[in-house]
Amino acid sequence: RFIFRHSSRASITRRTMSASNVDSSVGASTSPATSDSGSGPGQATRALWAGESGGHAYGAAQMPLVPAISFGYTVIQDWKEVALGQRPGHIYSRNTNPTLAVLEEKVRSLEDAEAATSFSSGMAAISNTLYALLRPGQKVVSITDTYGGTNRIFVEFLPKIGIHVNLITTDDEDKIVEAIKQDGGCDLLYLETPTNPTLKVVDIKKLAAAAHAAKADAIVVTDNTVATPINQNPLALGCDLVVHSASKFLCGHGDALGGILCGRKELVKKVYHYREINGAALEPFAAYLIARGLKTLSLRVQRHNENAMKVAEFLAAHPAVDGVFYPGLPSHASHAIAKAQMRGFGGMLSFSLKPGKTVSSVMERLRYAHRAASLGHVETFAGIPATTSHVECTPEQRAAMGIPESLIRYSVGIEDIKDLLDDLKQALEG
What we know:
The protein is of the alpha/beta class. The chain has helices at 43-49, 76-83, 98-110, 122-133, 148-157, 173-181, 204-214, 228-231, 265-278, 284-294, 297-316, 335-341, 359-363, 395-400, 417-429, and strands at 3-4, 115-119, 139-143, 164-168, 188-192, 219-223, 241-245, 259-263, 321-325, 348-353, 370-371, 381-383, 407-411. It is 35% helix and 13% strand.
């Protein structure tokens, strides 16, 4: 009732639009994630063909949109077998849907996961995962720099149901490891790297290993939204689960909300069951738009990476800029870690202004940037944490996270780089 991995690394999938989300190979073995240099299909090929290589109904060359709520059966025994997961099929779109199945398979393949399931938003993916896998009395360790909505769950909601949350300064990995080891280990380690909006990077392999060493059944979850599966695969570095706000880079066009969870099948199954009862199902049209966007993910991320690096270098040399937050710069505190675990440094950066320049004066002069929330779209977006990633937090809470009020988050689009640099120059010097 959700997407399981393919049986071999070299294959993509034989699933069609008429097939169920249920794969009979529940016990299929897993293999490490592969990059474009591996023996299996490259990331661009997976994004195009995963979930679609078996063809579609009526011989359609493109994935059809299936908005139906219900799916009928003329033979009652067939209906029963589908309901019990004994044969492929769909019954009700709150549970599974053919369009969602294609999207889930694409992300599952890109992350080289055992299983994947979708949600109505990125925060639905995160919250459903935490509530489905945790129970009162358990312990969570995370970092102080998670996305604002995630931070609210840790600070405001989980403690109300008796779950202890220990948030450790993101920059101090020794203290994170120490917190992981306390009291026989943590039940769940939650990471986000690079972080939003200050682009801090944590060592996924080191921290995942520490969590599993301290407690064998510890669950390690990583938010991979900012990096994308093109630049980074946390499962290959020891994580158990990966979450994405699919509304961002995966969709890429700013026209669909969605979230994805992928990873170990037994854990995804638990979260899927919670989601199908909780009701945070992804709408088929949104799934269609995100899956279509995924087909150009590899090309888009390559351009995002290239543009962001050039923008970061330009800003780092500008006299009006106090600091640039981008892991691709050698001056970044975690550049070495980012270089080791990422294939590209991503399409988002932030920068702070020196006294004499205000956020409003610079942002309001930008010609080629939407002054709006969100990131990861083909167009450049600029925003401030007080109205975007950390709107839920007070200025004091943002300051404690190392987020200055003079910070501008700049999600670099795929425009011509000269136009972006010229635009930033006139905005900073006006």
